[in-house]
Amino acid sequence: RVLAEVEVVEREVPPVVEGEAVIRRPVGGARLEPRDSIGEPPLHLHHVRDGVDRPRIARVQLEQLHEPNKAIEHVERVLGERPNDYTARELAERILQIGDLRVRAARVLEPVYEGRDEVRELVSVLEVRWAAGEDSGDEADVRRELLRRIAGLKDERLHDDVGALEAYARYVPQDPLDIAARERFVEIGLRRGEFI
């Protein structure tokens, strides 16, 4: 009797192929129930959407096929739907190191870091976008706003006087009517002894 039960458990179960992901059926015809009534996939398939394991495809395209342009498309889609997906975030951070995809990866990572309140990382991707200049496709107003955000984050959140002073030095000439930024620039400069 025990031997018969063991044989049932150990028999091979053919996979069900859906899209580009292979999903294994449970033994004995048991059903995999969703996590809740909304119909989310079972826990072991949380990263599979529409039958496609996008993070896995992106990893293969990046690491094995050396096609980062295709990989970032999957990463963008995953992080757009699930900003806390660790695998997609890791891949985006790796793509951030690739010259012509830096700005695109920075745009993808910006809401991720902002949502997780990871200020240092957020400042670094904002810097990437700003440093790209007109090549990034951002308008002058957007680039000015990036500088304002960088200066404010370095000043108020990171308490980095040197970084904030440098960022305000870039920002204030572009928006001289921003009185609060000008005052903050002068205040930090006086405190650091830059303006005597």
Features:
9 helices; about 5% strand; about 200 residues; two-stranded antiparallel sheet
Describe this structure in words.
This protein has about 200 residues and is mainly alpha-helical. The chain has nine helices and two strands; from the N terminus they run αββαααααααα. The model is unreliable at about 1-45 (pLDDT under 50). Helix 4 (about 85-95) runs antiparallel to helix 5 (about 100-115). The chain has helices spanning about 1-10, 55-65, 70-80, 85-95, 100-115, 120-130, 140-155, 160-170, 180-190; strands at about 15-20, 20-25. The chain is elongated. A two-stranded antiparallel sheet has the order 1-2.
Entry summary:
By secondary structure, the protein is mainly alpha-helical. The chain is built from nine helices and two strands, in the order H-E-E-H-H-H-H-H-H-H-H.
The fraction of residues in strands falls at under 5%
The number of helical elements comes to 9
Give the N-terminus to C-terminus distance in angstroms: 92 Å
Indicate the mean pLDDT. 81
Q: How many β strands by DSSP? A: 2
Q: Name the helix and strand elements from N-terminus to C-terminus, one letter apiece.
A: HEEHHHHHHHH
Helix content: 55-70%
Strand order, largest beta sheet:
1-2
Unreliable runs: 1-46
Shape: elongated
Q: Which structural class best describes the helix and strand composition?
A: mainly alpha
Radius of gyration: 24 Å
**Biggest sheet layout:** 2 strands, antiparallel
